[in-house]
Specification:
Layout: H1 9-15, E1 22-23, H2 33-43, H3 49-58, E2 73-77, H4 84-98, E3 103-107, H5 111-126, E4 135-139, E5 142-146, E6 152-155, E7 170-173, H6 181-195, E8 202-207, H7 215-227, E9 235-239, H8 266-272, H9 278-284, H10 299-305, E10 319-324, E11 330-338, E12 345-354, H11 359-370, E13 374-378, H12 383-393, E14 400-402, H13 404-420, E15 424-425, H14 429-437, E16 440-443, E17 446-449, H15 459-472
């Protein structure tokens, strides 16, 4: 944006250095800012200045039709750790409390992510003075937060059929960058008809910046930028992103970030650079669009980890993890142990074959042969079917499955160790291929490998990641004989 954003002086004073790149300015009239602030304080997350601005504009009423919002669509793009999900939480709760029979729906990259964020909302409300006013249902297909006035807040999967039969007043789409053109069209095909009969409807499209594949979000951002100074637009738009020409390595270059000085420091943002590729770092924290997806791990990093002559572990000190490619093209089993000489975790493929039908029987055979301390997997994708297959063969099989929080922590650890050299890996073409293919996606409040949108198979990387996690969190049982690898 060539010209400074047009906002009243009082708002510019409140925002300080965190001036948005684009923003729809507040206009005179009825709005719900005070009520939303009251809810935010009750939940324990008082609104930051940027959140106040967005809540103020988004809740403005139409000057002639007071039952309607001035803006039917809110498009908000801010960097990571800004508090966008917290803001949506407060808006949803306020509307549910003040308006009887209001129906609000929330989605994110996947149905699982949507449920995780919805659970965060529930947890925050249950820990607040508002807990006596809500009833919670946590069923997989019927999750809802209900109030005595008949209002409900539900998560939903981002699919074309998921809103069939519902009439949602509010729909919130979080992390919209995850949707390509076709997925976005399916999502809007579900939302627009479902909301069409409601005068007081509103749609929120919220995200960090995207990649070349984020066509759905890109169109809304371009439309929003054009609408920011259009007083007749039904779209309100807000964007906080790093200005051109800033040095991302300097703390002062991050003062524009809307949460800096509130809930995050410049140093925390600078520290994150060591754990991410340059492009992903600027996308996530600078809220800058990338034209390509970066390779997360370059060849030099992988070369530094490569070690063919690995020292076998004592029996009982081995952890095993398995992963099936999402298209069932390949299955892999990886082992992790601590090198007895260096104390560094070692990773190695111990089984890899086309297809996945072979996996349950082979994993049980490896259990009997190698006597691992732990066997497990990520409880997701095609791998879940492998786990079920193992249990059909041996109902007493001891298997450990990772849940979303474990998965994000496992990925953080794996990524940090690869970049910091804290591993040795028996190099294979499958390992290299998986590392080259990997694309990250948000999961809850963290990140993990995206099976669906990676460039190809990532089974080797996920199996190695899970094996490392299982091994690092095993109990300390010692063994004596050495395991021999064929």
């Amino acid at each position: 944006m060539d010209d400074p954003v047009t906002l009243p002086a009082e708002w510019l004073d409140q925002l300080g250095d965190a001036v948005p790149a684009y923003a729809t300015a507040p206009r005179a009239g009825v709005h719900d800012l005070r009520g939303i602030e009251t809810i935010a304080a009750a939940i324990g997350t008082p609104l930051m200045p940027w959140q106040r601005l967005v809540a103020r504009v988004a809740s403005e009423r139409h000057p002639e039709r007071r039952a309607e919002f001035r803006y039917k669509t809110i498009v908000l793009t801010v960097p990571r750790q800004s508090g966008k999900t917290t803001l949506m939480r407060c808006v949803l709760m306020h509307r549910a409390l003040v308006k009887a029979q209001r129906r609000s729906f929330y989605t994110a990259q996947t149905g699982k992510d949507a449920r995780e964020r919805w659970r965060d909302l529930v947890d925050a409300v249950q820990a607040s003075p508002l807990r006596s006013k809500i009833t919670v249902r946590r069923g997989a297909g019927d999750s809802s937060l209900s109030l005595p006035n008949g209002s409900r807040i539900r998560p939903f999967a981002p699919t074309a059929e998921s809103l069939h039969g519902y009439t949602p007043h509010d729909v919130f789409i979080d992390e919209a960058f995850a949707f390509d053109d076709a997925e976005g069209a399916d999502l809007m095909g579900a939302i627009i008809p479902a909301q069409s009969t409601l005068a007081d409807r509103q749609l929120w499209i919220v995200s960090t910046a995207g990649t070349a594949e984020s066509a759905f979000l890109r169109r809304w951002v371009e439309q929003g930028r054009a609408a920011a100074d259009d007083p007749d637009s039904s779209v309100a738009f807000f964007e906080w992103s790093m200005p051109e020409g800033m040095d991302a390595g300097e703390p002062d270059s991050w003062l524009w970030h809307p949460a800096v000085g509130q809930t995050i420091s410049p140093q925390t943002i600078l520290d994150a650079a060591a754990t991410m590729s340059a492009g992903e770092y600027m996308r996530a924290y600078g809220n800058r669009w990338t034209t390509t997806r970066d390779v997360i791990f370059d060849d030099d990093l992988l070369d530094a980890l490569s070690l063919e002559d690995q020292t076998p572990p004592p029996a009982g000190e081995l952890s095993i993890a398995y992963e099936a490619a999402i298209d069932r093209s390949v299955g892999v089993v990886w082992a992790c142990w601590t090198d007895p000489e260096t104390g560094v975790p070692s990773l190695r493929t111990i089984a890899r074959n086309p297809g996945v039908d072979w996996m349950p029987q082979t994993i049980l055979a490896l259990r009997d042969q190698l006597h691992p301390h732990t066997i497990g997997a990520d409880d997701a994708g095609t791998t879940r079917a492998v786990t079920e297959g193992i249990r059909r063969l041996d109902e007493w099989a001891e298997l450990t499955t990772l849940h979303p929080r474990d998965v994000t922590l496992a990925w953080d650890d794996m990524r940090d160790r690869i970049r910091g050299g804290g591993l040795n890996v028996a190099d294979t073409p499958g390992w290299r291929e998986a590392c080259a293919n990997a694309v990250q996606r948000p999961l809850g409040q963290g990140w993990t490998v995206d099976r669906m949108k990676s460039r190809g198979q990532v089974a080797d990387l996920i199996a190695a990641m899970v094996a490392l996690r299982l091994h690092e969190h095993r109990s300390a049982d010692a063994g004596s004989p050495l395991v021999e690898f064929a």
